[in-house]
Every structure is written in C-alpha cells, then in structure tokens.
User: Fold this.
Amino acid sequence: MTDRRGFLATALGTASAALLPTVGRAEEPFTLEKLPYAFDALEPHIDAKTMEIHWGRHHKAYVDNLNKAVAGKDDLASKSIERLMIDVNSVPAAIRGAVINNGGGHYNHSVFWSLMKKDGGGEPTGATAKAIDGAFGSYAKFQEKLSTAAMTRFGSGWAWLVVNQMGLMDVVSFPNQDCPLSAGLKPVMGVDVWEHAYYLKYQNKRADYLKAWFNTLNWDAIGERLSQALKKD
Ligand code: MN
Assistant:
C-alpha cells in the first residue's frame, strides 16, 4: 500500500536524520541545569529520592525529548525556552505537541526548582506580602486558593500564581505540562501535582504534599519573579 510505504519512508528518514551527529554545535540547544541545592535539601517536606528521580529522570526526559523535537530546526533551537513557549502557536504543527509537552515540562520544572530552598517556607514579607494581601486578602487566603486549584486539577498538571495580561495577579491551573507562558500569562510560582512529584513519600495524599511544599518556598526568589512579572512591559 502506497500510504504505508510513504509512512515508512518518512519514519525512516526521520530516524536516520536523528542519528546524524549535530554539526557546528557543541551542545544540545536546551540543557538540564543542575539543581541549586542537594537532593536532600528539602527534607523532610520533599524527600531526596523523589528529588533525584524527579529532576534526574523526569525533567531530564523533557529536555531530551525537546531537543529531539527541535533537532535540525535552528530557528526553534536558537530560541530561549521562554520565547519558545510564548510563541508555541508558531511551531510547526508536526512537532507542536512535542514542544507543548516537553518544552512546557522543561520550563515548568526549571521554575519549580528555583522556588524552593533548604530551610524555606514561612510567610512572604515586604512588597511580596503587600502584593499578595492586595490581590487575595491575606497570605492564608492565597494559600487556600492555590491549594484548591492544585487539589481540583484532575489527573496531572500544575497550579500557578500568575500575572495576567491586565497586569493582575491570579491563580490558575493547567493540565499536563501546558505552560502559562503559552496562554499569555507570566508565571510567578507553580506547584507540580503530577503523582511523580509526591507519590513515593505521600502516595495518594496530594493535600499533605501541598501542605509540606509551602514549607520549602524561597520567598526571595518568588518575590523577585513577582516584581518582574508586575512590571509593565
Ligand atoms: Mn514533575
């Protein structure tokens, strides 16, 4: 059958192209950055084994698969991950799904690691506290809103604090690895509620993981992201 032969030729063509060494580029376009802390830094809230697998296998797979998706497409491979996700609708349809899933996975996890630190948690202070109180009433109300968004995300996904196109803070949630940047939002902080983020320690108890996650937060890093996101373009 012609269709079948055509399909095979295309599949083989793609496979052999992927086996060719990349010329003129020493590194893959997108890279897995090292964690800014040790695997056990977030204990007891997030255990070392979960961090090791989450970063070293899950995040790594998103980076590897993103690099495969953009291989040979220099216009995409030369973009920053932020720009790639903002412009995702201009990615060719044949690889758009792969970029949404794996580019989103790469960006979302890169942000996620940066929001946490050893001996984190507590409440925000200064301008960050003022902004959160102004938008949500209090830090407790904000926590409740983000937790509800995270708890009611059916299946896998994320809950985020974002700044929207009107410059207002909002809490949203997305399925899978869908990236807030692709929805025209500026992501400030997000929590991963895929089971791979918590199952080893918390099994099915997502609420317990969420409660513990708030004890890992790096308010300096979050405050910096919030002030950048609130700046007028
Ligand atoms: Mn994850």
Observations:
- The first strand starts at residue 157 and ends at 163.
- The first helix runs from residue 2 to 19.
- The radius of gyration is 19 Å.
